[in-house]
Amino acid sequence: MDVRLNFINHADDPNHSQLLIFGRNPETSLDEIAAAWTVIADFRPSMTYAVLYPADTGISVQDGFGNFTPMLPAAPGQHFRVAESEDGLIVEQAVAAGPPDQITLANQLRQGAVHVGLYKDKRLYLAERNLLPEQTAAFRLRPTIWVGVASQSPLDAGSNSAILSSVATEISLLGVASADIVMTGGGTGANAGPLAFTLENVVMA
């Protein structure tokens, strides 16, 4: 089911930082994060921001020319393949199932690497880039999101470097229907503390 989240800024953050919400494959490191799924720009003290984390996921493939295949619904246990057709690349669900906790896609092209993306609300959530022929991308969707803070810089918004230079916190949404995610900490001088995110006012499904 979808999860309704309300982000609340109770931090003393004079930088008016951007809040970055992103997914992460458990096997990847933070420097392999594709992009921020959601960016809350200029997240000022006392601000609130509502985010709907959808249960549904889609899968699409991008070729080397920047063309995307139509998005298909995807769920753990489903295995997909990308192949060639008269009209270009196609992605289709394979007859054989994949691992029950993973969404997988095999590159069955004769040549050419592709980028594979999982999407939530039609925005990129997880990705594997440069998947070569005969290789398989595997995504494990855990009921968690990652939250980070980046400086207010248009060049860094949603980029790997912005995420890496920030606080990165994993938040479990297992069984949650709605909740507040509250940011605290910050400040200047001797009283400054690290930014932190906590789950509050949780309503279970």
- The portion of residues forming beta strands comes to over 45%
Low-confidence blocks of residues: 152-159
Shape: elongated
Strand order of the largest sheet: 4-1-15-16
Strand count, sense and closure of the main sheet?
4 strands, mixed
- What is the percent of helical residues? under 10%
How far is the N terminus from the C terminus? Answer: 8 Å
Rounded mean pLDDT is: 87
Round the Cα radius of gyration to an integer and report it. 19 Å
Number of helices: 1
Strand tally: 16
Secondary-structure element pattern, one letter each: EEEEEEEEEEEEEHEEE
Class based on secondary structure composition and strand pairing: mainly beta
Brief descriptors of the model:
16 strands, 1 helix, 50% strand, four-stranded antiparallel β-sheet, elongated, four-stranded mixed β-sheet
What does this structure look like?
With 205 residues, the protein is mainly β. It is built from 1 helix and 16 strands. It has one helix spanning 160-164, and strands at 3-9, 18-22, 38-40, 48-53, 57-62, 72-74, 79-85, 88-93, 103-107, 114-120, 123-131, 136-139, 144-150, 168-172, 176-186, 193-204. A 4-stranded mixed β-sheet has the order 4-1-15-16, with no helix packed on it.
Can you lay out the helices and strands and say which pair or pack?
Layout lengths: L2 E7 L8 E5 L15 E3 L7 E6 L3 E6 L9 E3 L4 E7 L2 E6 L9 E5 L6 E7 L2 E9 L4 E4 L4 E7 L9 H5 L3 E5 L3 E11 L6 E12 L1
Parallel strand pairs: 1-15, 7-9
Antiparallel strand pairs: 1-4, 2-3, 2-13, 5-6, 5-10, 7-8, 9-12, 10-11, 13-14, 15-16
